[in-house]
Amino acid sequence: MYQVIGLGFDGCQASGLTSPFDVFNVINTLWKQQRCDTAPLYECHLVSLSGESVHCSNGMKLHADFSCSEVAKADLIILPGIHHTDGRNLLDSLSRLKAERQWLEAQAQQGVTIAANCSGVFMLAEAGLLNDQTATTAWWLGSMFSKRYPQVEFCPQTLLVKNKQFYTTGSMTANLGVMLQIAEEQVGRQIAQAAARTMLIDASQSYASPYLFMQNQSDHQDSLVLAVESQLQRDISQRLDLNTLAKQHAVSVRTLSRRFKQANGVNLSEYLQSLRMEQTKLLLETTNLSLEKIAERVGYGSQSSLRRLFQKNLGLSPKQYRLDRARHSRTPLRVC
Question: Which domains does the chain have, with CATH numbers?
């Protein structure tokens, strides 16, 4: 029997604990059905520093089975995300969780596998456990993570990184994928795949690249530009120009043009073209839509215009790009 320990603390994201537990529960059920065995493969427990219940960020109160000091054996420790409103709030939470970090360090020294998701990865990095290793986190936290932990090799393009005994993930899907990977290593691929099919988990999604453009272009704090960026991302299929946007946001064309260039280093038309290229790449990677349909969705008048610009920007045709990405990913295409 494998012992899975979820580390709970006030302000943690409940799904980062309950969803992985659900994966192991399904695996236990499948195991019993296939082997007619009443003994579970995995025993999951929630622990907190003091052994008291924890108040999650969504308002749920989770009962802890016992305290951290009472953990006799752990095969896997699950570390959920830390809910936060901004970077300063996240750093304040990290400071408050010093005792939990020290417990994680002690467990790591014993060779226990630790899986951290989203902002929970900061706890591992803050404890120095990821020094001289690669790691990832949620795409919108990448800039802060890489600046705070320069000794960690940050991998912004991927949603799941395994190093030694540590798993770091940047999305809930990737976090569930870790549980399936661990189960596959411990009890075999067949039952892990059966669990994935039962829960409809697509564990093959591993790239964060479609979201990085938005992160890189939104590190400024100009509220006007952020609002315009949001509209461009939301209404990408529409024909939007500087005059229309300036009128909608009640500023002059000159003001919007100046502030947008100051915030992003590129003018609005260059930003919109880059955004459309990123969306085109995403649709080529994850759907089987025709180039004509993709052109409509990203706001180009014709597929020939999109093909020409794509070739100019990336040095290969949309068809070649789709084939190349398909060879490097097991993600099934979906019709949208």
Answer: 2-208 (3.40.50.880), 217-327 (1.10.10.60)
The torsion defined by the Cα of 278, 279, 281 and 287, in degrees rounded to 10, comes to: 160
Could you read off the pLDDT of 239-288 as tens digits, one per residue?
888 999 999 999 999 999 999 999 888 999 999 998 899 889 878 877 78
* Amino acid code (one letter) for 316: L
Closest CA to 310 of 279, 287, 277: 277
Contact between 256 and 237 under an 8 Å Cβ cutoff? The reply is: no
Asked if residue 104 lies in contact with residue 47, where contact means CB atoms within 8 angstroms, the answer is: no
Q: Are 104 and 77 in contact (CB under 8 A)?
A: yes
The H or E element that residue 160 is part of is strand 160-163
Cβ atoms 320, 312 nearer than 8 A: no
Using CA atoms, how far apart are residues 211 and 243, in angstroms rounded to an integer? 27
Contact 3, 75 (CB under 8 A): yes
The two counts, helices (H) then strands (E), for the chain are 15, 11
pTM: 0.66
Beta-bridge partner residues of 6: 46, 78
